[in-house]
Design brief:
ManC/GMP-like_b-helix; four-stranded mixed beta sheet; GMPP_N; five-stranded mixed beta barrel; transferase; 351 residues; 17 strands; 2 domains; alpha/beta; Nucleotide-diphossugar_trans; 27% strand; Spore Coat Polysaccharide Biosynthesis Protein SpsA, Chain A; 11 helices
Amino acid sequence: MEYACILSGGSGLRLWPKSRKAFPKQFLKLFGDKSFLEMTYDRIKKILPQDRIFIVTHINYRSHLKLLLPQVKDENLVFEPEQKETLACIALVCMHVLKKDPDSILGVFPSDHFISNIEKFESAMKKGYELAKKDHIVCFGILPTRAETNYGYIKRGKKIGEGLFLTERFIEKPDSKKAKYLIKSGYLWNSGIYIFKVSTFLRELKRYMPHYYDIFMRIFSAISNENYIEELKKGYKLLEKVSVDKAIMEKTKKLVVCISEFEWDDVGTWSAFERILRKDENGNVIKTEAIVSESKNCIIFSDKFVMALGIKDIILVSVEDAILICHKSKEREIKDIIQGIALNEKYKRFL
């Protein structure tokens, strides 16, 4: 049977100061009256029944989940005791789905993507679930529209079907020069969406990450038992942080890439809002009451009234206790600075 897993445990550091450790970006309502998580859930429930949609997140976010999606039953919520990157959270959901259905097929969906043209999205996912029945691990490649340095790229290999290719190579977040070269060379953006048989994924996990496999098999044996939480915490202490891309997808021979036509954006930086929200006549994206004069190509998010005069290519984000002012050319450095603040006792309260 077909299932879905929504990954909702990320920290969204590059959208600071809106996205905070206690309330990260997947729970934010930046495009209207629904959060990223709610929009993702709405997309998936058009494809699958709600009782087959799982959500995985850190245990500290339990109350956020229950508030945003009260209709989701407890048995469909999977909580991690620690944040250990995407390999761990996907493997954990696999354990719960496997317990429910040994013949399960699982789709993995990040919760922080913006996707338009839902009909094309649904069509691509239905095709992906069918392909996964043939023992493929299916990923979805997006035709690039710009030299994006915040995305991963996939090199297409041999064509094996209409819009379907073997994968030759992954490249993570290249610099601008390399991104331009990759686009000219026919690489695709990696959407981070995967569909596979749980049994297939676990075979690959055992092959490439046997340490992980052994830990999660012990966790699997403890599900529904009194010692589950104890075994879960003990197992997670032994896990290194590693992404599913690095651990499995870059190595497996089972991976195929399906070229997808739905419009997709990984809203990982403030610049993403220029591609999604309406700009004024000077290229500014403004989400606040503001007077903006002689200013071009700026992004302004604020909970206060803003007056901006004579600025260009500036990101200005203001919340109650913090303000970000950043030139767009420096946006990639936000995450590094935030990680540095985490080590500073004086400022870590602002995270």
